[in-house]
C-alpha cells in the first residue's frame, strides 16, 4: 500500500483519472439509449451515472439527471419500462411499452453501439498520433522453426490459420493463445507475392509457452485514409481480445484473480500512470485513451451478451416479440430481469471483495 504525502497524491490522481475514464465510457453508453429514445418519442424519466444513493440530481424538462455514489454503471430509465405501471394503465402514449418494437430495439441497442462508436473515435486519436505496429517481421531467431520454414526479416504476415492479419498485436495474440503448440499456418507477403508455410512452434521451458521464433512489429505512420482503416482494425483487435478473454474465463483458463472491478481498475490506471508520467502529460493522456478504448469495447460487448438484466437480454425479448407478433407478459419478463439484476449485483459484490483481497 502506498504511504506518505507523495503516495497519497499519486493515488488521488489515479482515482481521478479512473473516474474520468468511467464517466466517459458510461455516459457514452447511456447517452446512446437517451438520444435514440428521444428520437423515437420515448419519455426518459431519469438519466443517472453510478449506482446507490444519489450524490446530487437536478430536473430538466421531463428528465431527472443524477450522479450516484458508486462508480459501477449507470442507467437510462424510461417511462413504463418495468411493466408494472403498464398493467395498471398508468402510462402515457410516450411510455416505453407503447413504442413500436423496432423503436424499442433501436433504443436498447444504441447503448452498446455508442460504446463502439466512442471506441472507434478513441482509436482514431491513437492511430493518428501514434501510428500503428505492423505485422512486418523484424527478425527471425537462429535455428527456430520460423527460420526452417523460410521466413525472413522484412516479410509481412498477412494471415494466420485462415484469419486475416493487419496488426503486429494480432500475431502476438494468436501465438500466445496457442497453449498446446498446435501447427500454425502462416501467410506472408514478400516482394508483392503471398506465400503460405506451416510452422510447428517450439516450447520454451523458461517462459512456459510456445514460440514460432519471430519478432513481428514494424512501425507505420498512417496517412489520413490509413488512419481511418487502421483505427477500425485496432478496435476490431480489442473486440477479438475481449471475446478471447471471455472464452478463457468460461473454460477456466482464466481465474477470478484475472477479473477486476473498480478497485482493480484504479490499480491498473495507477500502474499505467506511474509508467507514463515520466514521458509527459501527452503520454499519460494517450495511455488513458487506450484504457478507455479497451473499457468501452468491453462494456459494449458485455452489454450485448444475451443475459437477463443486460441490454442483450432485453434485446432477446424484443426479438421474440417481433417474431411472435405480441410481447412476452410484462410480469414474466420482469421476473427474469429481476433475477438477472440480483445475480449481477452479487457478482459485483464478489468482484469488489476479490479486488480488496487481491490488492490490499
From TrEMBL:
CDD domains: S2P-M50_PDZ_RseP-like. It is an enzyme of class 3 (hydrolase). It comes from the Bacteria. The chain crosses the membrane at residues 12-36, 102-127, 284-305, 334-353. GO terms for biological process: proteolysis. GO terms for cellular component: membrane. InterPro entries: PDZ, PDZ_6, PDZ_sf, Pept_M50_Zn, Peptidase_M50. Pfam families: PDZ_6, Peptidase_M50. Residues 137-192 form the PDZ domain. Its cofactor is Zn(2+). It is found in: Membrane. Belongs to the peptidase M50B family. This is Zinc metalloprotease.
Amino acid at each position: 500500500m502506498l504511504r506518505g504525502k507523495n503516495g497519497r497524491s499519486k493515488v488521488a490522481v489515479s482515482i481521478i483519472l479512473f473516474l474520468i475514464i468511467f464517466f466517459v465510457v458510461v455516459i457514452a453508453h447511456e447517452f446512446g439509449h437517451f438520444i435514440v429514445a428521444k428520437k423515437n418519442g420515448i419519455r426518459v424519466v431519469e438519466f443517472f451515472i453510478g449506482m446507490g444513493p444519489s450524490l446530487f440530481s437536478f430536473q430538466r424538462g421531463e428528465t431527472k439527471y443524477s450522479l450516484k455514489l458508486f462508480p459501477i454503471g449507470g442507467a437510462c430509465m424510461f417511462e413504463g419500462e418495468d411493466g408494472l405501471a403498464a398493467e395498471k394503465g398508468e402510462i402515457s402514449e410516450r411510455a416505453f411499452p407503447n413504442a413500436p418494437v423496432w423503436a424499442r430495439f433501436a433504443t436498447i441497442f444504441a447503448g452498446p453501439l455508442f460504446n463502439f462508436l466512442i471506441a472507434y473515435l478513441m482509436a482514431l486519436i491513437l492511430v493518428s498520433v501514434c501510428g500503428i505496429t505492423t505485422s512486418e517481421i523484424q527478425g527471425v531467431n537462429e535455428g527456430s522453426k520460423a527460420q526452417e520454414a523460410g521466413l525472413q526479416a522484412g516479410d509481412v504476415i498477412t494471415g494466420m490459420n485462415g484469419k486475416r492479419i493487419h496488426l503486429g498485436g494480432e500475431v502476438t495474440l494468436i501465438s500466445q493463445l496457442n497453449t498446446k503448440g498446435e501447427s500454425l499456418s502462416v501467410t506472408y507477403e514478400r516482394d508483392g507475392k503471398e506465400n503460405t508455410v506451416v510452422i510447428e512452434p517450439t516450447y520454451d521451458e523458461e517462459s512456459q509457452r510456445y514460440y514460432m521464433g519471430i519478432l513481428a512489429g514494424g512501425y507505420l505512420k498512417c496517412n489520413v485514409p490509413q488512419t481511418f482503416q487502421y483505427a477500425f482494425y485496432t478496435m476490431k483487435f480489442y473486440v477479438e481480445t475481449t471475446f478471447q478473454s471471455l472464452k478463457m474465463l468460461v473454460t477456466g483458463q482464466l481465474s477470478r484473480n484475472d477479473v477486476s472491478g473498480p478497485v482493480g481498475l484504479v490499480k491498473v490506471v495507477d500502474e499505467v500512470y506511474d509508467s507514463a508520467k515520466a514521458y509527459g502529460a501527452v503520454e499519460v493522456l494517450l495511455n488513458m485513451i487506450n484504457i478507455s478504448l479497451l473499457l468501452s469495447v468491453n462494456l459494449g460487448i458485455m452489454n450485448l451478451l444475451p443475459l437477463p438484466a443486460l441490454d442483450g437480454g432485453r434485446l432477446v425479448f424484443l426479438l421474440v416479440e417481433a417474431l411472435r407478433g405480441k410481447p412476452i407478459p410484462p410480469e414474466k419478463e420482469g421476473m427474469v430481469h429481476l433475477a438477472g439484476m440480483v445475480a449481477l449485483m452479487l457478482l459485483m459484490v464478489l468482484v469488489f471483495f476479490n479486488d480488496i483481497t487481491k490488492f490490499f
